[in-house]
Amino acid sequence: MTALSDSLMLAAPELWLAVSALVLLLVGVFQGDRSYSTISWACVAVMVTAAALVANGASGIGFNGLFIVDAYAQFLKVVILAGSAATLIIAEPQVRRLGIARFEFPIVVLIATLGMLMMVSAGDLLSLYLGLELQSLSLYVLAAFHRDNARSTEAGLKYFVLGALSSGLLLYGVSLVYGFAGSTDFLRLQGVLVAEQAPSVGILFGLVFVMSGLVFKIAAVPFHMWTPDVYEGAPTPVTAFFAAAPKVAAMGLLVRVLSDAFPGLAEQWRQIIIVASVGSMALGAIAAINQQNIKRLLAYSSIGHVGYALLGVAAGTEAGIESVLVYMAIYMATTIGGFLCVMAMQRGGQAVEAIDDLAGLARRQPCIAFALAMIMFSMAGIPLLIGFVGKLFVFQAAIAAGLVIPAVLGVLASVIAAYYYLRIVKVMYFDEPAPAFDDMAHAPSSMVLALSAAFASPLGYLAIGPLAAAAALAAKSLLG
Fold first, then answer.
1. How many CB atoms lie within 10 A of CB 383?
2. What does the pLDDT read at residue 2?
3. Under the phi-then-psi rule, with left for phi > 0, alpha for psi from -120 to 50, and beta for the rest, what region is 457?
4. What do you get for the CA distance between the two ends of the chain, in Å?
5. Are 232 and 296 in contact (CB under 8 A)?
6. pLDDT digit string (tens) for 402-433?
7. Model-level pTM?
8. Alpha-carbon distances, residue 303 vs 143, 180, 254, 291 (angstroms)
């Protein structure tokens, strides 16, 4: 086989997504919006097939170093594909109610997923940017997909403007790194930085700008400002997607860039990561306390969760990377369930988003209330639930790396954040009942919610062994 054919085999899942997106786009053009369900389920099938290709694919470096496939990339790709597929499954009833059941919706999600897979396999700053922008442009479209709604169009515009700014920062950083190091290839950059006794000021400035662009994508402090408004304004299925797969992909990309391209500057970038981590944990714990809109609350919650995951990144060890992978997989599974409960908050076909609307839900719809309670307890990190395991992994890795003070601050932030999670449970179980929500008549959504709640519960411990083993193998492949 030639080098090109080897590279194409490595990129088989990405090629499968790209070709499928083009074919389904043609189907949609000829059949119109009545083909929404067919195309949506076809996209789910495409993602499941892509996950199988990833799991059974070979490892290696292709396209002259631009594309890397290792156990780390494979782990993240399977998680991303699972999150994207779950989002499409739960989105159908909601997008129909909103009147945005257009065939383009699942195809844009599919293209965004393609960008995410390219991100976590990037081996060069240029292929990194290509994947990042393919994902970002798709997300801008999704944020404003409900174009007849002022909040949705405002969310899309805000996300686009701030996203363009972050992309500019990232590109400027890439140009500085290339100018002072002479390469954009991760492995060559690593060699150049190891050979230099003291890194040049230009490379350090480039690193700061590159990290600024990536920190924006994970919505960590101080580049978090877009998150609450976009999460609240975008259609709820889109918000669920934003909070799940793209967050995992961006975190995976950040870890790869720091571990593959800039390990020689670990002391420099660790300072930035620690500040972003502590700031995100503090903001996520405090800013959500007075929120009345549950989507805004979950937006600040996501900022806090990114802060916890960044503790593992700051550790910079194999155990730290393993903890990040485990944490992000747990976060994604519980977040999808949480937003599915938000989608169930409907009365008379109209969405309600106030936390007070959950009052007495346990008496009127006990199954949904129990599922949301399990998810909230897990997000809070209550012992015996799966979310506790994720935080335990991260804190142990941080302490082992000598980051005792950030870990202690993380524990304190987790205790403070538990207030607003427990407040939701209190409203559901102890407040006077509000009018009942419409029944969740969509069987696939009910199944996804049941799986998410079961994973958040003590039953999730059954999955911890295989999950941790896969994460450990992925972390070893990245640092090995």
1. 10
2. 58
3. beta
4. 27
5. yes
6. 999 999 999 999 999 999 999 999 999 998 88
7. 0.95
8. 18, 33, 16, 14
